[in-house]
Amino acid sequence: DSGVTQTPKHLITATGQRVTLRCSPRSGDLSVYWYQQSLDQGLQFLIQYYNGEERAKGNILERFSAQQFPDLHSELNLSSLELGDSALYFCASSVAAASSYNEQFFGPGTRLTVL
Amino acid sequence: AQRVTQPEKLLSVFKGAPVELKCNYSYSGSPELFWYVQYSRQRLQLLLRHISRESIKGFTADLNKGETSFHLKKPFAQEEDSAMYYCALTNNAGNMLTFGGGTRLMVKP
């Protein structure tokens, strides 16, 4: 599959725990974006990385962090989890992070359930 | 701050009927607007962007700056159009998408 891949598909954990979500961008894409989709907040942009560097930040909590590695895959780390963090987390990738829009291609998402 | 509003959570029409999915936005700048679609068990994917002025799968959307709207239209709905539709706006840097709440379109036979 040459598209965006995300692992795991589902994750169930308890409050207070820490999890790591993984994303591999499309081949050739340098930018990775993370979005959170929850019932009450809808689809919200969290953070963008471009070629290993943080490029833009949205509504990302301080308990959350991300990084992009030299092989361009990205990880989203969620710590001190709360019930309200239960959501679908999407990763997207694009070719670049230029001054104009580059189409973002979305992964299938990771569904996180915090009990 | 940029904001996208889709007033209808659900829109149900019969096959062959016209469809209009509403989208309103607020943005202090020159917006770039998009429609994304998510079919059942598939990924979110770009349907169309206002700057390209294309018609994709029979859908069109016109940016109305006066009314700050970007409604998605199709003259004759098909059952395969049933999906979740999201209107989105990007910032000047082109790297942050702000999504509306989405509208679920159901096309009945």
Give your account of this protein's structure.
The complex is a heterodimer of chains A (115) and B (109). By secondary structure, chain A is an all-beta fold. Helices cover 0% and strands 52% of the residues of chain A. In chain A, the strands form two sheets. In chain A, strands 2, 4, 5, 6, 9, 10 and 11 form a seven-stranded mixed beta sheet that branches. The model of chain A has no long low-confidence stretch (mean pLDDT 92). In chain B, the strands form three sheets. In chain B, strands 2, 5, 6, 9, 10 and 11 form a six-stranded mixed beta sheet that branches. The radius of gyration of chain B is 13 Å and the shape is globular. Chain B contains no helices and eleven strands. With 109 residues, chain B is mainly beta. The chains are: A mainly beta (115), B mainly beta (109). The interface between A and B is medium-sized, with 27 and 19 residues.
- Judged by helices, strands and strand pairing, the structural class of chain B is mainly beta
Task: Please give the share of residues in helix of chain B.
Answer: under 10%
How many helix segments of chain A?
0
CA-based gyration radius of chain A: 13 Å
Shape of chain B: globular
Instruction: Please report the total strand number of chain B as a whole number.
Output: 11
* Cα end-to-end separation of chain B: 41 Å
Number of contiguous helices of chain B? 0
Class from helix and strand fractions of chain A: mainly beta
SSE order of chain B in H/E notation?
EEEEEEEEEEE
- Biggest beta sheet attributes of chain A: 7 strands, mixed
Please report which band the strand proportion of chain B falls in: under 5%, 5-15%, 15-25%, 25-35%, 35-45% or over 45%.
35-45%
Name the poorly predicted regions of chain A.
none
Oligomer status = heterodimer
The biggest beta sheet of chain B, please?
6 strands, mixed
Give the percentage of residues in beta strands of chain A: over 45%
Distance between the termini of chain A: 32 Å
